[in-house]
What does this fold into?
Amino acid sequence: MKITLGKDDVAAVAFEAAAAVGAEPERLDVRPIHKASRGFVNDSAADLCELAVVTLLQAVAHDKPVALLPVTMLGRHQHQTLVTMSELGVEDVRGRSIGVRAWSQTTGVWLRGFLGDQYGIDLRDVQWRTYEGGHVDGATDPAWVHRAPDGAKLKDDFLEGRLDFAIMGNELPADDRIRTAIPNALDVAERWAEKKGFAPVNHVVGVNVAFAEQNPKAVLAVYDALAESVAARDTNSNAVALNPVGFDGLRGPITDASRYAYEQGLLPRPVDFDELVERTSAALGVAASRLTA
It folds into this structure.
């Protein structure tokens, strides 16, 4: 059982569970973890892989052999990821340049969704610049999104003033000049989550459909172990969990992410959450309630 999970301690939990049912786990260590997605989605390079939500949705829409294992590997607030080094604010993004690593990056999908829903911004009124493509063969960016020249880097363009804004999560550089474009961004994010009843989710777990069909016992054992471990680590003091597990916990955030992804030209068709549920349940030969926390 080939497993690709970003954090060592989480991978250890999966390994122990897989070994306990005789699955002979092997870790494929790929860092940063998003670079594992292409091989998993297009070439079945792993049996179980940490996967960005939008990559999962694109894979399903393009009929790749991937199913959702409903465990959150990374959930966080996102409003603070729109940053600037100028006096410009979120109300000034129309006509301005915004850089993002990839149009399919889940952080960017969430933030652009907020721009539309909360701030009434037509995304076509922004000069979008990306620096790499997505991970799913067959998926393309909208024609109105522009790729930076070969060799250009998001961080350099942002820090050297060639971009008015950037969307950056973990890759945000340490620089005292950087500030969030949305005032009191974390407070805004927490209010958004309280109103919605869930927080944004970035990474979940994907499972190869053929492997799940052939080895449901191993996949379910890993799911149980990961779900218990992740749920125990969610120390968010608010009512909204940052790392939900189970189909019920992930329905809200993945439904919104899917809507945003379709609206932003990332999906050739809508992907309904129940389609994900049915795909996983069929592959594992279990009722959906088996994976509902």
